[in-house]
Design goal:
This protein has about 450 residues and is α+β, with helices and mostly antiparallel strands. The protein folds into two domains: about 5-265 and about 410-455, 2-methylcitrate dehydratase PrpD (Orthogonal Bundle); about 275-390, 2-methylcitrate dehydratase PrpD (60s Ribosomal Protein L30, Chain: A). It has helices spanning about 5-15, 20-40, 45-55, 75-85, 105-115, 120-140, 155-170, 175-185, 200-220, 235-240, 245-250, 275-285, 325-335, 345, 350-355, 405-415, 420-430, 440-450, and strands at about 65, 70-75, 295-300, 360, 375-380, 385-390.
Length: about 450
């Protein structure tokens, strides 16, 4: 492991836009467009409103735009709120191994772009590096079994990705990046125990602001351990299995970029990724069930995911992390969207009546890896009729191509009601050619994002 931090930072610092290749650029832009859409939608959620109110109260120098609220704050504070907006709906893309690599990084790139007059090409390159850092850390690391994990990956690797993106935009060399990662490593964490609470969306916010601040501090000469990856009490030892870390996988950074292979998975329902399988199956069965009130029982077989076995979520927000709730909403409504996770829907009479009818079995025979898992679902009616399905590839799954029209539709679904259709089209077209957009074009895009509070 000796020299790992040096070798990694040399590799990352040397990468330029020209090294990305057209496939990487295209996939990074897809992820940015999806993330911006979700952030605009998430900006009106209560947890984000609280964070925005707090940040406004700090009265920081107005440098970077807080999306959806029409004011500016420090770059780190804007990144905090905007990253929470991107994560609060649990609707942004998924990496493999699993984390939400977009929400901690993309807001950092845009926040610094406003301060340092960066172009769209700069943003694409910074995001490519920041996404890849998270992907590589998880791909090279060895995490404990799911039931033994304590840290949320977004907080665990997100700050390191944000730090890499910020260091690129600040023009830091390998030495500066070493200091940045040393500082950022002490910000890593976020506890899984806060799943289903307002704090979960702040995990992305903390990662974004912490990584950005680490780079700003390193730029000023602040230091961190220059051997933070390999140190016996360093980052890999704390989070990635220590000596079990696969050095070769980590140092293959960008060979290829993992945003291309295996790619990102895109969500079409705003809830925890394992529930995408359950919702897809339930929507299929909804078409066969004429009267959901005649359901006698619902049986599910899932992987060993106790954190998603929540038979009676206390709030609509917690329903995003419940197999039972997501299936119930899909069976009853024939669709699952943002409103499915309101407290009003959670405590509606039909949903309250359906939740006790679930029987869930979790088995080690189904792999935990999202790319290999499946959900088996059976609905038995009062007359004894049974409807069954198995879902192993929900829409947007890794390796399943998403047409540009589907990206645009999701953008419209997320942003409509906050900005007009012409502005949504402008946002979409700007992102699709982001690498060609100059500093003025970036500012116009950010101004559009800042307007969304007025709806």
């Amino acid at each position: 492991m000796e020299g790992l931090t040096d070798a990694l930072c040399e590799r990352i610092a040397a990468l330029r836009y020209e090294d990305l290749g057209p496939d990487t650029v295209a996939r990074v832009k897809d992820a940015i467009g999806d993330g911006l859409s979700v952030a605009v939608d998430g900006s009106t959620e209560k947890p984000v409103a609280i964070l925005a109110d707090y940040v406004r109260s700090l009265e920081s120098a107005p440098r970077s735009t807080v999306w959806g609220y029409g004011f500016k704050s420090s770059a780190a504070s804007a990144a905090l709120v905007n990253a929470a907006s991107a994560h609060v709906l649990d609707y942004e893309p998924m990496s493999s191994p699993s984390t939400h690599a977009v929400s901690p990084v993309m807001p950092v790139a845009f926040a610094l772009a406003e301060v340092r007059d960066c172009s769209g090409r700069d943003i694409v390159t910074a995001c490519a590096k920041g996404f890849e850092m998270q992907h590589r850390l998880l791909y090279a690391g060895k995490l404990p079994p799911r039931s033994d994990r304590r840290f949320h990956q977004v907080g665990m690797v997100g700050g390191m990705g944000a730090a890499v993106a910020a260091a690129h935009l600040l023009g830091l060399d390998a030495k500066g990046l070493r200091a940045t990662l040393g500082i950022a490593a002490s910000r890593a964490g976020s506890l899984l125990g806060n799943g289903g609470t307002m704090t979960k969306c702040a995990h992305a916010g903390y990662a974004a602001s912490g990584g950005l601040e680490a780079a700003l501090l390193a730029e000023r000469g602040f230091s961190g351990n220059a051997r933070i990856m390999e140190h016996g009490q360093g980052y890999a030892a704390a989070f990635l299995g220590g000596d079990s870390l696969d050095r070769a996988r980590l140092l293959d950074f960008g060979k290829p970029f993992r945003v291309v292979d295996p790619g990102m998975a895109y969500k079409f329902f705003p809830s925890k990724y394992p529930t995408q399988f359950a919702i897809t199956g339930a929507l299929e069965l909804h078409e066969k069930i004429k009267d959901p009130s005649r359901i006698a029982r619902i049986r599910m077989i899932t992987p060993l995911m106790p954190d998603v076995d929540r038979p009676q979520p206390a709030t609509g927000l917690e329903g995003k992390f419940s197999f039972q709730y997501c299936v119930a909403a899909a069976l009853l409504d024939g669709e699952v969207g943002k409103d499915s996770f309101s407290d009003e829907r959670r405590f509606a009479a039909d949903l309250v009546a359906l939740l006790p009818k679930f029987e869930i079995a979790q088995t080690s025979e189904i792999p935990l890896e999202f790319t290999q898992m499946r959900i088996e679902l059976e609905v038995e009616m009062q007359d004894g009729t049974r409807h069954r399905t198995v879902c192993s590839k929900p829409k947007g799954f890794w390796g399943v191509a998403i047409e540009p029209a589907e990206h645009l539709k999701k953008m419209r679904d997320c942003m409509s009601g906050r900005v007009g259709d012409a502005e949504i089209k402008q946002c979409y077209e700007t992102v699709t050619r982001l690498e060609q957009i100059d500093v003025a074009g970036v500012r116009k895009l950010v101004q559009l994002l800042g307007k969304t509070s007025s709806g």
